[in-house]
Amino acid sequence: xxxxxxxxxxxxxxxxxxxxxxxxxxxxxxxxxxxxxxxxxxxxxxxxxxxxxxxxxxxxxxxxxxxxxxxxxxxxxxxxxxxxxxxxxxxxxxxxxxxxxxxxxxxxxxxxxxxxxxxxxxxxxxxxxxxxxxxxxxxxxxxxxxxxxxxxxxxxxxxxxxxxxxxxxxxxxxxxxxxxxxxxxxxxxxxxxxxxxxxxxxxxxxxxxxxxxxxxxxxxx
Length: 221
Hints:
Layout: H1 2-24, E1 33-36, H2 42-47, E2 54-58, H3 61-71, E3 74-77, E4 91-97, H4 107-110, H5 116-137, E5 138-146, E6 152-153, E7 158-159, H6 167-176, H7 191-197, E8 202-208, E9 211-219
């Protein structure tokens, strides 16, 4: 029951953010779009339905195959290299939803870092580099991430203050938490963090219950 509630909650949030994107990029249907970390293409297909000039960049080959076969999107395979495999200004718009918080280092090691200071320092370096790459390859961009201080942590549905616990405690918690079974790689960002990563961006907020739920760094064309 709780998982169904989580998925319904996520769908509503994505629908709200899609409306924000279309308002900020009213000509998106006529522009080239890169969905960075776009999974199987389902999300961006709901944001710009029927748009064919969409490229999905993703590590998972099966998800790329689905995006290509079902939606006609172009697929590009990503590695964990800091430099993205695209030219400067290759896309009109880079769309990136709930990805940057996971860009914290190699997945085979990041889940074992128990020091809060070490994890946050490494995460900051990788997230800054990722942001620089987004700014390099897109003439415009829309980068969304869950807000660090929302009362519910969106990946785990745990009470929000859990993100303030020492990382060693969090790692133990996620071992038995019923709604999270992934590598604990996420490092949530604040508005200040996003401004540092994207100094040329407008910062927009998505609200829920009268509180900031997610933040979006936006550079319009």
